[in-house]
Design goal:
binds NADP nicotinamide-adenine-dinucleotide phosphate, 10 strands, Rossmann fold, 9 helices, two-stranded antiparallel sheet, 8-stranded mixed beta sheet, alpha/beta, about 220 residues
Length: about 220
């Protein structure tokens, strides 16, 4: 699959790109600055030691031309980023991994956008796209380090069956990840908010925990 990542030059985009490319997908890291994106892509390829050769970098506008597009910007620039790419994203699957969080001392706290989640806000802004929410709890550093021994469940939710199925299929065969269908996009509110708990645990226990659902 050809995958574009908007805001792909940050830790989250880099980590996801390394894993997806290691499973054979072609990934374009998008950025506001195409040169910066290519430089970051080079770092990801080098770090993966030949296992993520299909990662490249380009402007967000080019990344938005991919078959499936992932949104990986900070929460406060997510809406502006996709709003400028509405026509490029029409008819496509757009996966939001954005968490709206604020730091309060040694804790992260969730913020609730008026529609309940960032993903639902993005769906409202892109009525012609098939929005899904996923990847919220993945630790970026462990994702990029293909030898980190990462074992994590990945929750996927969407109001579009084809979007959920495409994300589940995309993650098939990616080492260390198990994708789970978590239902409709209404679940994104709880999924995004739970990231605050996960990061708070990481701060308190000085670690990078992952989500694993027992009994499934
Ligand atoms: N880090 C993690 O472990 C992790 C895990 C799961 C989910 N997430 C979520 O994924 C998203 C990205 O996380 P991150 O840690 O990679 O964030 P980040 O480094 O702060 O931002 C990612 C990229 O977004 C672009 N960006 C920054 N400000 C922007 C603006 N005002 N307008 C447009 N683009 C802007 C930048 O790319 P350019 O400057 O190149 O354009 C930046 O490299 C967040 O919403 C986060 O909650 C993070």
């Amino acid at each position: 699959m050809d995958i574009g990542i908007l805001g792909g030059t940050g830790p989250a985009g880099r980590g996801l790109a390394a894993r997806l490319a290691s499973a054979g997908h072609a990934v374009v890291l998008g950025s506001r600055d195409a040169e910066r994106a290519e430089a970051v892509a080079e770092e990801v390829r080098t770090g993966a030691k030949g296992r993520a050769e299909r990662v490249s970098g380009n402007a967000n506008e080019q990344a938005a031309h991919a078959e499936l597009v992932i949104l990986a910007t900070p929460w406060d620039s997510a809406l502006a980023t996709v709003s400028g790419l509405k026509s490029e994203l029409a008819g496509k699957i757009v996966v939001s991994m954005v968490n709206a969080l604020v730091k309060n001392g040694r804790e992260m706290l969730p913020m609730y956008p008026p529609r309940g989640s960032v993903a639902e806000m993005i769906q409202a802004a892109l009525p012609e796209s098939l929005v899904a929410a996923s990847f919220h709890h993945l630790p970026a550093g462990m994702m990029e380090d293909l030898d980190s021994g990462l074992e994590a469940d990945v929750l996927v939710c969407s109001d579009h069956k084809s979007a959920t199925e495409a994300v589940l299929a995309m993650l098939e065969g990616i080492s260390g990840l198990r994708a789970l269908n978590a239902g409709s996009l209404a679940q994104a509110s709880a999924i995004e908010a739970f990231t605050a708990v996960a990061i708070t645990l990481n701060i308190r226990y000085k670690t990078h925990s992952t989500l694993k659902m027992a009994g499934l």
